Amino acid sequence: MKLLIVESPAKAKTISKYLDNAYTVKASVGHIRDLPKSNKNAIDIENGFAPSYVISPGKEKVVSDLKQLAKKADEIVLATDPDREGEAIAWHVKEAIGLKNPKRIVFHEITEQAVKEAIKHPRAIDENLRLAQEARRVLDRLFGYDLSALIWQKVRYGLSAGRVQSPALRILVEREKEIRAFVPENFWVISANFQTKNGQVLPFECREEPKTAERAEEIVTAAREAVWQIANVTETEAKRSPRAPFTTSTLQQAASSRFGYAPSVTMRLAQKLYEAGHITYMRTDSTNLSKTAVSEIILTINKEFGSNYASPRTYKTKSKNAQEAHEAIRPTHTSLKSAGGNPQEKKLYQLIWQRAIASQMADAKILRTKVSAEADDQKVPPFETNGSQVLFDGWLKADPAARGEDVELPKLTEKETLVLKEIEAVGKETEPPHRYTEAGLVKELEKRGIGRPSTYAAIIKTIQDRGYTIKENKSLVPTDTGEVVSDFLTKYFNNYISDSFTAGMENELDDIADGKREYVKTLKNFYGPFTKEIANKKKIEKITNLGPAPDNAKCPVCGGPMIIKLAKNGKFYSCAQFPNCTGALTLEGKELAGPKETGEKCPQCESPLVERDGRFGRFVACSNYPKCRYIKKDAVIEGEDRPGDTGVKCPVCQKGTMVEKRGRFGTFYGCSNYPKCKNIIKSKPTGGICPDCGSLMMQGTKTIPDRCSNKACSNHRPDKKK
User: Fold this and answer.
1) pLDDT by 10-residue block (mean), the chain, 722 residues
2) Which is nearest to 360 in space by CA: 395, 328, 393?
3) Three-state DSSP state, 386
4) Which site in 54, 57, 251, 416 is 20 to 30 Å from 295, CA atoms measured?
């Protein structure tokens, strides 16, 4: 018997179809070993930073089954993914089931030809690649454990830091502070409609954007009295070249922009497509395409669009650390225009197909027209309008979503008279920098050299799971906790969360993979200075005071001044005399009562149970928190209704009810069945159901009547209905 081991059951199923009965194909179901959760025995620092691996929970049977199959096998082939992670999984399988000299094969697409060709050219496990992954894992563990422990001591229990997550969080917090510090400036946009001699009305805009209302009014008044004519007509033929095939980063960005997919969702869908044999390997920073792939793409272009659309080309990979042996993400069979097991997979596949096909197509030719209009009054600045027309669609034929909107202008000539029909000046303000979207953060991380294609999705997911950021619309917004942690790290460990350190460490890991740097030396160079830095910072005082509260925030108990503190659910106002006075307020001014004993004992640790104020009202929990995290479910506190519960049934899951919650930007209403159900609405539900779409109706305002919670529904803004 011949045994071939891969990571996933889906991958195993696809490969089995290609190999008939020549191999028994089994899956390790991802990693089968990892570092133990406890850091005590995880890494032997004195013995060359040697990790101590254990079988991952739930993987005991997988390991046992693979051992039994290995005993019967005459040949064992490890066919895990073609990257560091895949190399590490192959090595762990070898070690866990006791293989001496297994064959290692790699392929970048799961097709019959690729798999069979790989089997013909086996190799040994690449120790350098494996060590690079191990170095990353050990480095992240040492960094995270030691720094997180200090944050627990100095900020709050349960918080964490990470070698890559912390720089990512810092970027978000820096942008948030830029937004707060931004001082808007007023300006006016002056728009006008001019009628041509042929009776067509065209929109123009003033070239000048006045800074004052007086100047804007001066232009508008003079423009109405002036005589107008065409001053200049400029036509320029421009080319739009296609973009390179997708890398991991650009795929995540495009899927986020076009479909709203989170990077983690994109990678999950791409993984499914890869395992089903529809696309090449989805973790890559290379824009290369193989000669075979280019030839197949050209044939597809000739067939689908015509030979005049074909234009073979190569692309220079921007990342200096790109694995040029890898290919860009592309369809394995370009003749297949649609693939995937569900609508989401099909949309992503189509995006990949369009980008790969378009990358080998001719430039689009665009005619850009710029027309300027001038008044006979010198006090009036010129007005301009722009148009564009596609002369030859080229690659836009394959990717029409990238085309944009054509604005075709009529034929106009210089000195042609224009008649001003309408003109208005609209006051505006300069806008602060935009918050990062998930796609924007991926692009920024890549630009700064922080992380690698395989880690972007995990970085963003981690800072959200830690409660350091929340997602509002499409933007990532730092929470109070995230900002405090980032400020602490920036103040005391800026060297270790800087772009230069993080990018430099990624380069060193790349050097280990290339055999240019030693594993032990790299970790020793980092860990020695790092532990000294940690030790030096143990002397700093615990951060309990985040600054004085506003003057109007007075202690509800003693009437004295208050300070800002950080709790698990964000910032609050605490009496400056604490612990002598326990007065506390929410940032909205609601009084927070202190813990009150119920007379009951905790069923887990026998400590007294107490009533506490939480994010959503009073609740009963163990007084020994955080050592004991017992919370009494369904506890009814005397004299209080169930806090925040509207009693309105959630229409999405049909199990929970809509309860009042508080976020960074105020009150909202979410399902009590969270996180299983993530249904939220902005305003208090009325209990009614929208007759058009079936969503919950929300309470209205003085100017807006009760309305539908679904933004896409016409009943969301009934006041704007025609």
Assistant:
1) 94 92 93 85 91 93 95 94 93 94 94 94 95 94 92 87 94 96 96 94 96 96 96 95 95 93 93 95 91 95 96 78 70 94 95 97 96 95 95 95 84 94 96 94 92 88 91 90 93 94 92 94 95 92 86 92 85 88 87 80 91 68 83 56 72 85 71 82 86 83 78 78 58
2) 395
3) strand
4) 251
pTM, two decimal places? 0.76
Provide the pairing of β-strand 54-55 with 33-34. antiparallel
All residues at 6 or more sequence positions from 496 whose CB lies less than 8 Å from its CB, including other chains: 143, 147, 163, 166, 489, 530, 533
CB 493 within 8 A of CB 455: no
Segment 25-38, tens digit of pLDDT: 999 999 999 999 87
Residue 587: how many CB atoms within 10 A of its CB? 15
Two tokens at 529?
């200075």
Amino acid identity at 665: F
From 15, 243, 255, 40, select the one nearest 113 (Cα to Cα).
15
Question: Is 573 among the catalytic positions?
Answer: no
Reference 263, options 436, 85, 447; nearest CA is 436
User: Mind listing the domains of the chain with CATH numbers?
Assistant: 2-125 (3.40.50.140), 136-181+434-537 (1.10.460.10), 186-241+365-429 (2.70.20.10), 248-358 (1.10.290.10), 645-720 (no CATH)
Marked catalytic residue, from 261, 281, 436, 669: 281
